Amino acid sequence: MRHWGIAVAIGLAAMAGAAFAQGDVIAERRAGLKRMGGHMEAMKPVADSRGDPKPLEARIDDMIAFYRTLPARFPAGSGTGDTKALPAIWQDFPRFEQANTALLGQLATLKTAAASGNAAGFAEAYAQTGPQFCGGCHRPFRAR
């Protein structure tokens, strides 16, 4: 009987650890995605005013680094809890990865425009990034 109680305690501890780890991955990806939104918000006034985009390169680099890791931030079983992730992510993970790859390509375009100091090119790339690429992932994969 005593061995059974120890086995149950170990099992419960393992389940609690998995739930905690899942909560961590959800919290980490939410914080990262919020940071990405902050980068986009910081770029908007520069794009709108056709200002100098060069100072935004570091923000774009951070976005590229984050989105390179995005698919790994959605492990199986992390679709419940404090998340707006829709089941479609795991049901069609290749499509999710495709959307992420497309966004990475667009961020490279945005970075090139920022690095060159091309204000008009940056504004055009920025205008496409939000609705077409960010929205291309939010619409099918994120609850409102």
TrEMBL record:
Span of the signal peptide: 1-21
Matching PROSITE patterns: CYTCII (PS51009)
UniProt keyword list: Electron transport, Heme, Iron, Metal-binding, Signal, Transport
Pfam family, one: Cytochrom_C_2
Keyword Electron transport belongs to the record: yes
Domain of life, per lineage: Bacteria
Keyword rRNA processing assigned: no
InterPro entries in the cross-refs: Cyt_c/b562 (IPR010980), Cyt_c_II (IPR002321), Cyt_c_prime (IPR012127)
Record protein name field: Cytochrome c556
Organism, as annotated: Paracraurococcus ruber
